[in-house]
Specification:
It is a single chain. The protein is an alpha/beta fold. It folds into two domains: 168 residues, no CATH class; 123 residues, no CATH class. The chain is 52% helix and 7% strand. The protein contains 14 helices and four strands. It has a four-stranded mixed beta sheet. Strand 3 and strand 4 form a beta hairpin. Helix 9 crosses helix 13 and helix 13 packs across helix 14. It starts with a strand and ends with a helix. This is DUF2268 domain-containing protein.
Length: 295
C-alpha cells in the first residue's frame, strides 16, 4: 500500500507560464494519473472539462493571480504537509482497525478558480472528494483558514476512502441513502477532530449550523431519501444544489455536515468508540443509536 501525492505544483506552474494554446494539453497530462477517480462515469471523461466543472484554476484568464496563489500553497508546504498527514492518519486508523484493506491511493491537489462565485463563496474556497477507492481530490484557494486546515481536510477525505474501499461499506448509487452520506461526513469530521481537535477538524461549511435544531430536524426528515442524485441539496445545501442542477430542499450550505457531526458524536458517546474505531460503523446503527440520545 502506498499513498502518492502527485507533484502538481511543478505541473501547475508550468501550465500557468505556458502559452495559452498549449495549456489544455499540459493540464490533461497532469490530471491523467488520477483519471481513475472518474471510472464510474459513463463513457469517456474529458479531464479538462471535469477540471473546469470542479472549480479548477482557469486556463484563459487570471494568470498572475493564479500564479501568486499557487506560490502561497507551495510556501505553506501544502504537498508535504498533506503527505505527512495522510501517512500519520493511516497509522492511527490501522492501529484502530488492523483488519481493513487499504488501497494504493493517488492524491491530486489542484488550485481553485477565484472567479467562481460558488467555489469562493458558499464552498469557502475548497472542494474535495475521497469517496472513490484509491483516489483523493483536493481543490484549494489559499484562504488562511484553508491553509490552516490542509491536514484535517486531507484526513477527512482519507476516512471516506477507507470506508468505501474494497467493499468495506457498499455504496450503490441507486439505493444509498442520504443518511449514509450524512453519517459518513460526520465520521470523517470526527476522525479529523480526533487528530487535530475541534478548531481545525470540523469541515468549515458545517460549523454555522452545528447547533441549529431546525436544520437538524429537516435533515433527519430526509435521511431515508435514496439515490445519490438527491444528496447535494440534503448534504451540501440549496446553493450547491442550484449550482449543480439539483432540486433545492430548503437547507443552508453544509447542513448535512452539521447534522452528521451531531449524530456521530452521540453515537460515539453512547458506544465509547473512537472515530477511528467507528470507521465502518453501519449508518443505520449510528442513526438509531444517536436519535435515542438526542432530543
Amino acid at each position: 500500500m502506498t499513498i502518492t501525492v502527485l507533484d502538481t505544483y511543478l505541473a501547475m506552474r508550468e501550465i500557468l507560464r505556458a502559452p495559452q494554446a498549449g495549456r489544455s494539453a499540459l493540464l490533461r497530462a497532469m490530471l491523467e494519473p488520477a483519471a481513475g477517480m472518474y471510472r464510474y462515469f459513463p463513457g469517456e471523461v474529458d479531464l479538462v472539462a471535469m477540471h473546469q466543472m470542479s472549480s479548477g484554476f482557469p486556463l484563459d484568464r487570471d494568470g498572475e493571480r493564479c500564479q501568486e496563489a499557487l506560490e502561497e500553497l507551495h510556501n505553506a508546504d501544502a504537498w508535504g504537509r498533506i503527505s505527512r498527514a495522510l501517512d500519520d492518519a493511516l497509522a492511527v486508523q490501522l492501529a484502530a482497525t488492523p483488519g481493513i484493506t487499504v488501497p494504493d491511493i493517488t492524491v491530486l491537489i489542484v488550485l481553485g478558480d477565484s472567479a467562481d462565485e460558488h467555489f469562493m463563496g458558499p464552498s469557502l474556497g475548497m472542494m474535495a472528494n475521497g469517496s472513490v477507492s484509491g483516489y483523493v481530490f483536493l481543490n484549494f484557494w489559499p484562504y488562511p483558514e484553508n491553509l490552516a486546515r490542509l491536514e484535517a481536510t486531507a484526513v477527512h477525505e482519507l476516512n471516506h476512502n477507507l470506508r468505501y474501499s474494497k467493499g468495506a461499506v457498499v455504496w450503490d448509487p441507486a439505493t444509498v441513502t442520504v443518511g449514509e452520506q450524512v453519517v459518513s461526513e460526520g465520521l470523517a469530521d470526527a476522525f479529523a477532530r480526533q487528530l487535530y481537535g475541534d478548531e481545525l477538524g470540523y469541515a468549515r461549511i458545517g460549523v454555522p449550523h452545528l447547533h441549529d435544531d431546525e436544520v437538524f430536524a429537516k435533515v433527519v426528515s430526509g435521511l431515508e431519501v435514496t439515490g445519490m442524485q438527491n444528496f447535494t441539496a440534503w448534504v451540501h445545501g440549496d446553493a450547491s444544489a442550484v449550482r449543480f442542477g439539483a432540486t433545492p430542499v430548503g437547507l443552508p450550505t453544509g447542513a448535512g455536515y452539521a447534522v452528521g457531526n451531531r449524530l456521530v458524536d452521540a453515537y460515539l458517546t453512547a458506544t465509547g468508540l473512537s472515530a477511528a474505531e467507528a470507521l465502518l460503523a453501519d449508518s443505520r446503527e449510528v442513526i438509531d443509536t444517536a436519535l435515542k440520545r438526542l432530543p
